[in-house]
Specification:
Order of helices and strands: HHHH
Helix content: over 70%
Largest sheet: none
Distance between the termini: 25 Å
Amino acid sequence: MMAELGVLASLVGVVGAGLQLSVGLFDFASTLGSAGREIEDMGSDITLLCAVLKRVQSTLDNSKSTRLSATAIQTTQDIVGRCQRILDDIKGILSKLRKDGQSGLDILARVKWTLKRPKVLMLRGSLQSCTTTLHLMLSTIDWRHNNTRR
């Protein structure tokens, strides 16, 4: 139960950071015009990740849910930690793309984006992988819960 509380606390922090970052990405994307489509897509991916994380949180919070193994809890904690690191990396890149960390862009924003694009796309793929893994874990938990009630 103590391990589940640690995962829950991590989930809350990652969801908050993810939603804040998603808003920042949408704001930044709107200033890049057509080049901002990939950034908008990443913002959508982060919003989806936050929805999955909220579902994980809800599942862990549910006292009627099937008790998870220590391995499942540790795996969830590892994925949540990875998500946090990825979100931190994206936030760092976004702040470097903005002029002096402000919401406005300097004249070189499009050039900066072109240089950072491969790294951002790699991070986006990692984030999608985390989302898929968490979704698979939820499906497994739901399946197990439904089959143990029979």
